[in-house]
Structures
1.
Amino acid sequence: RDSKVHQNLLEDHSFINYKQNVENIEIVKSRLNRPLTYAEKILYGHLDNPHAQEIERGVSYLKLRPDRVACQDATAQMAILQFMSAGLPQVAKPVTVHCDHLIQAQLGGDKDLKRAIDLNKEVFDFLATATAKYNMGFWKPGSGIIHQIVLENYAFPGALIIGTDSHTPNAGGLGQLAIGVGGADAVDVMSDLPWELKAPKILGVKLTGKMSGWTSPKDIILKLAGITTVKGGTGKIVEYFGDGVNTFSATGMGTICNMGAEIGATTSVFPYNNSMVDYLKATKRGEISEFANLYHKDFLSADEGAEYDEVIEINLSELEPYINGPFTPDLATPISAMKEVAVKNNWPLDVRVGLIGSCTNSSYEDMTRAASIAEDAASHGLKAKSLFTISPGSEQVRATIARDGQLKTFQDFGGVVMANACGPCIGQWDRQDIKKGDKNTIVSSFNRNFTSRNDGNPDTHSFVASPDITTALAIAGDLRFNPMTDKLKDKDGNEFMLKPPTGVGLPPKGYDAGENTYQAPPLERSAVEVKVSPTSDRLQLLEPFDSWDGKDPTDLPILIKALGKTTTDHISMAGPWLKYRGHLENISNNYMIGAINAENKKANSVKNFYTGEYAGVPDTARAYKKQGQKWVVIGGENFGEGSSREHAALEPRYLGAYAIIVKSFARIHETNLKKQGLLPLTFAKPEDYERINPDDLVDLVGVTELAPGKQLSLRLKPKSGEAWETPLNHTFNKEQIEWFKAGSALNKMAEK
Ligand code: F3S
């Protein structure tokens, strides 16, 4: 149990720390005096301070030390730029960056990849050089999708990792807690700050029985989504248990954990079992499974009698395939009911495109099962009636199915093999078969099917199903087709039924790694130059923010008094702005453009206090910034709810905000503001929000004595009439006050 075992085959500096995990768990158990679930063991095994940490599920905030960080290309840009601005020589924990989101599917694999490399050259060059400089692993475009690469190379039982992508939980299929976060959290871990997470509740899902025929792991999560809805997992970890968990593959468990994101779960996890051992061995990591076996009882399983906050039971023997959608992944219809439901709802019945693969469902098993169906159809002289695409999750999966023949089966069947990347799953799909506004149906084995997600067409009815059902529906070309009961006609008009799929969990000849697409950080990194063109409109190096001037601010104008709901989308819109995620100056042009000005009830129209002229919110902020004038924002309830987008905090800081004063904050946004050196403050008397005129000037009294739990005061100076004061609360602790004084959390880290 004392051996030093590497976390993976690619890094020689990262080791598995089971001993420390178990010591932490023992400390926590002696304090809590109760059995722990498996998910709790992983969390508490990674506590920063197991002696002093308060632990109450659903209540306390845990300070954790994750084992590693994974970032995809779209979110990595700002995370790395921020990390760089701290001036630290290298990342504190193992980090990998994966190029998968920026590759658009158009003509198929190689051509699309070449085009994407051309189009995104500056971003890929930046990521390649910055990862090399700061000691991170870099997976080049074409290597595959982040979650598949993590499963194949980095995931191991009992680990805690964070990833800047919502489907990071995929790695729960190998018995680890993998949690999707925003860039700001990734920067914390990269720079050795503990990472904070509200102690999740634990939703136990008990699996009994065994699946057969057309049912596959995807159907477990499709059914669960129907039970819990898209919000049912919020603030919870889904922990699977029961005999049923030992009846299918680790990659199947990965699919289920991946789509836990669709019910809003913090993450999902399966306990360590034999399927994981098999997968670890097949991916050349037998040493890890031997090490894990030594810790099976005290770490890698739930304690006897561990209690869940709630339990849902699913009998796998009775489970039938599901088709979920359209427009939401929790609208679950068992395949036997689809005929009726589809007609009743007037959903387009022609299946225009069937899409398999993605990070959710592109294991060797998924591919061999789908290929067995395609082969069966081909033996009756049929091809896919719908368009059919395959997005391999990784170069390894692609090369292995190319070697073993499934890829050819798909191509003969009429399939188009896309690049090893996200492609149509994230809307990177130059779809040609329909026009925008055409009402149509597509079925995929992906995870999300919100309006417009796949092809940007709000009239596309997108359904999610297993790769098996997707393939069967592509053969029939009809949403009502049920392969378990319905017949097809072969090329001569004779009726036949498709055989249930047969697949192989792991490749009998082992995996073929394919092309080497990994770039390890060099040992000598000081000479590496990070490539950011000064003329780029997509990337911009960040300057550290100024430190606090040590004074109470006076006469600050109110940039905007926001009315009603102000989410992170109102604060920093997505859509076309995604392009500028690595360019703070450019993306700041979207600051608060979606928020409603309480004064004139308009979006993106505020009055400049000094000139009296109306202009856009970012333009007015820039005008203030130009004259060296700091400003504040006034807002309502749950300000900053939505995503963990750090840009929503970076932008006001960049544009010269001093404080954001609201009735209440969404917690993540509040923390993000603190991290960027801003003052998030709340009205002690929320009704005073109403008394504030957008053209009042404000003083903040007591900033010089900022201390935990001590109120500040807001002095309002109306253009006419008496000045008045109202108390303000804050939630700064001692450490966070240091962030404010230093100008940002990163500045503070750099000082250290
Ligand atoms: Fe990519 Fe879609 Fe997965 S965007 S990471 S393939 S959910």
Note: The longest strand covers residues 201-208.
2.
Amino acid sequence: MSETEPEIRKGLVGVVADVSAVSKVMPETNSLTYRGYAVQDLAENCSFEEVAYLLWNGELPDADQLKAFRAEEAGERAITPALHGVIRAFPQDAHPMDAIRTAVSFLGLEDPETADVSEAATRRKAMRLLAKIPTAIAAAHRASKGLAPVEPDPKLTFAENFFHVVLGKVPAPEVVKAFDVSLILYAEHGFNASTFTARTITSTGADLHGAVTGGIAALKGPLHGGANEAVMHMLAEIGEPSKAVAWLEGKFDHKALVMGFGHRVYKNGDSRVPTMTKYAEKMAEVVGDRRWMEMSRLLAAEMLTKKKIHPNLDFPAGPAYHLMGFDIPLFTPIFVASRITGWAAHVIEQQADNRLIRPLSHYTGAAQRSMPAR
Ligand code: ACO
């Protein structure tokens, strides 16, 4: 490395950009903790609301705190007629991630505290976004299918209400539990691309709605959250388990990316995959359709044998959401409905000890030169 050629960490691989007390990603043991608790333990023993409280407050809630948190969230779910009107004006074929990005931006126009970046206001705005995002996702999805929106039901849990506003009905408890588990697993993951985007936006002094709008834009990409949709498209393209291995060999021939595999941090397995796979298997049992999980098992075994690459969370989440009855374009918006918790926790942390995020680039363009004669 010479003076004129600094070490470039392309993609910021391995760069530790700041401290954080929200979650710890430990690739050496394939583990992940939120505020010190193993994500698997949270998924098996807690509700998504308890985990949201934990991420925002550092501790799990007691019964009264949980009751108050649930009541506040349930009371904020309605969206205005103005936002419903904006959603109805979206093009019929708008991608749901573009729809929710635009809806969150519009919520920023309506929020009485948008520009207030104090911690208290950011917490109140985070709660409003947590509550309203499912309503906006569902309204946009239903509008794209020519269906009227369903009013949120404050008596339902966060997970139950998501099914209610999207599908108009709440499924069996084991389906709701599998969905709740997926929300917990998707809630937070250190300095991933969308969270780092949200923190970068926050570092300029910009507000929560701006940070979340940017986070959603980053999450849409197929290398990040968009992979859960891509996984289901891939499984649908393969069609049946007997074709899985041959299909994969074709991808190897073209050195193509196989969606739902690989991870920037975990190289020996994603800590969230076993739990999500267990619940995806349960969904296959409930629905009585083993095709997708059988295909997944064959693909994962072949990827490990031939490429030494493990699946990431999006791999089991894709078929799980399909088996729960959600259309594929809703999969990444569901990730948004969950990750708003992690994004907000990081925004609050960034605001508390802020320094503008502003790295350098090493210039490789034309040498300095004179302007041509004019
Ligand atoms: N399919 C095929 N090959 C892969 C895959 C994959 N999914 N992932 C990595 N590889 C290969 C790379 O091409 C590279 O090969 P090379 O050394 O011959 O060039 C090698 O494995 C090492 O990959 P990395 O460079 O370590 O991957 P990186 O950290 O840059 O990227 C990423 C990580 C973006 C997640 C990548 O694995 C990928 O594109 N996966 C598919 C998309 C995906 O599933 N994203 C979801 C991420 S998790 C989440 O958001 C919840």
Note: The beta strands are 23-26, 31-34, 37-38.
